[in-house]
Amino acid sequence: MITVQRELVNPLKMIMKSGKVPLLFLERPTMNNQDIKKAGLKVTTPRKKILDILTHAEKHHMSAEAIYQSLAAAGEDVGLATVYRVLTQFEEAGLVTRHYFEGDQSVFELNQGEHHDHLVCTQCAKVEEFFDETIENRLHSIAEKAHYKITDHALNIYGLCPECQEK
């Protein structure tokens, strides 16, 4: 059984796979203006609005263009260049993590503070986050046998989500 060594604002959803070790599918953390301040950044209107979109949007992983479109749809006057600049500042401050799942376009997610991996649907681009202790233990075992010290790793599993399999 997998245990979680951290508290999340939102509960974890446990989904059993093959009757053995459950994968932990993670809920998105929440952030607010205090997190911007703690990161050493001034709380500005564009930063607040972009953080709000990342915190409350249906998709956990959003491109700068998608964030810009959300702002425009809400009638907000924040330019695309500002969105890119704020996301880069958030990334440097550790508030968001940038990923390159498909192609050249990067997507951003709120930094959860703990490592997790991703399942990526190659048809609809849905991304699910998970943590699996068995995978993590195996990675450490491989690194140890090769006399490597792991500093980081990224695991993205590509396939078809259940909804796309039904199509």
Which descriptors would you attach to this protein?
globular; alpha+beta; Arc Repressor Mutant, subunit A; two-stranded antiparallel sheet; 7 strands; 5-stranded mixed beta sheet; single chain; 167 residues; Dna Ligase, domain 1; 2 domains; 6 helices
Unreliable stretches? 1-23
Outline the biggest β-sheet: 5 strands, mixed
The proportion of residues forming helix, as a percent range, comes to: 25-40%
The name of the CATH topology of the largest domain is Arc Repressor Mutant, subunit A
CATH level-1 class of the largest domain: Mainly Alpha
Average residue pLDDT: 81
Shape: globular
CATH architecture of the largest domain: Orthogonal Bundle
Number of helices: 6
Within CATH, the superfamily of the largest domain carries the name Winged helix-like DNA-binding domain superfamily/Winged helix DNA-binding domain
Strand content: 15-25%
What is the string of SSEs from the N terminus onward?
A: EEHHHHEEEEHEH
The figure for the number of domains is: 2
Distance between the termini: 33 Å
Computed over alpha carbons, the radius of gyration is: 17 Å
Q: Which structural class do the helices and strands define?
A: alpha+beta
Strand order, sheet with most strands: 1-2-6-5-7
**How many individual β-strands?**
7
